[in-house]
Automatic annotation (TrEMBL):
Organism field: Enterobacter asburiae
A GO term for molecular function: DNA binding
PANTHER family: TYPE I RESTRICTION ENZYME ECOKI SPECIFICITY SUBUNIT, TYPE-1 RESTRICTION ENZYME ECOKI SPECIFICITY PROTEIN
Domain of life: Bacteria
Domain Type I restriction modification DNA specificity: from-to ranges: 96-267
Gene Ontology biological process: DNA restriction-modification system
Keywords: DNA-binding, Endonuclease, Hydrolase, Nuclease, Restriction system
UniProt-listed Gene3D superfamilies: DNA methylase specificity domains
Membership in a protein family: Belongs to the type-I restriction system S methylase family.
Protein name listed in UniProt: Restriction endonuclease
Length: 291
């Protein structure tokens, strides 16, 4: 930590790049415990390495566990939302009895305000939102919101454009109590299904494989609402939709939650590692310890 701060303070930032010359770098006073007693110094260094290696190994184990759980989650999501012929009817997403797509629009990032009416910008769907949300990251003024297309409770908000094929049509189920504004390059899906069920369906290989045939564009990839409406979704009973959601919610919490799941545990272990690393390297300054 101290070395990183020293580099920031002593780097030559001319020309937009931060550079430290060899001569300057060689002047850094590296902390060495008990410099007058080499045997004791090496023993202390070895113990510091042993302690920090344990933290590193624990974080690696948790990361491997998270990777395994994500694979397990993907497998069960695809299995639970795959129905054999006759087990559940399949309907186009845009069929009248199922749902309809409404294009977003009317605001940009520059229109964000500190408070007002909640809004979702299509770019935030990739960076901020997961399967569902009940709060928005940003707001627009009430006067602008009156001109915007809005998502209601239970609607999906879908990013219809992306720089890569996997992310295009990433969706978030809006579960908040208030209507929210939706930006251009996104659309709203109003439907008669269980909201999270539809959002989970948008993550399946079944949806992805159907979506690919409708992707257009070169640098910017997109799927328009008319083509989204053609994609087939299995529609079991409401009870079955709820059962599937309950199972997938547990996996989603474990693999995605920054407050309860494995990502939170990894974050805490990383902070713990950084705390003890800085503490273990906090030796007396050069006045009492040689470099």
């Amino acid at each position: 930590h101290h070395f990183g701060e020293w580099c920031k303070e002593n780097a030559n930032k001319s020309g937009g790049l931060s550079i430290i010359g060899i001569k300057k770098l060689s002047s850094y006073k590296f902390p060495i415990p008990c410099p007058d007693n080499p045997e004791k110094s090496l023993a202390i260094q070895s113990e510091i390495v042993r302690i920090l290696d344990k933290f590193t190994a624990l974080t690696a184990e948790l990361t491997a566990e998270l990777t395994m759980r994500k694979k397990q989650y993907n497998y069960y999501r695809n299995q639970l939302l795959s129905f054999e012929e006759g087990a559940a009817p399949f309907y186009p997403l845009g069929q009248k009895e199922v749902g309809e797509f409404i294009r977003g629009g009317s605001f940009q990032k520059k229109d964000f305000t500190k408070s007002g009416v909640g809004c979702i910008h299509y770019g935030q769907i990739f960076t901020h939102y997961g399967t569902y949300a009940n709060k928005t990251k940003t707001f627009v003024s009430e006067s602008l919101a009156q001109k915007c297309r809005k998502a209601k409770t239970g609607n999906l908000v879908i990013a219809t454009t992306s720089e890569n094929d996997d992310d295009v049509c990433k969706a978030v189920a809006w579960l908040g109590t208030e209507d929210i504004a939706v930006s251009s390059d996104a659309c709203i899906y109003r439907h008669n299904l269980t909201p999270k069920y539809v959002s989970y369906f948008f993550q399946t290989e079944s949806f992805q494989s159907q979506k690919r045939q409708y992707i257009t564009g070169t640098k910017v990839r997109r799927v328009n609402a008319d083509n989204l409406a053609k994609i087939l979704i299995p529609v079991p009973s409401q009870e079955e939709q709820t059962r599937i959601v309950d199972i997938l919610d547990k996996f989603d919490l474990l693999t995605s939650s920054i407050s309860q799941g494995l990502p939170r545990e990894i974050e805490l272990r990383q902070k713990q590692y950084e705390y003890y690393r800085d503490l273990l390297f906090s030796f007396p300054r050069p006045e009492t310890a040689s470099n």
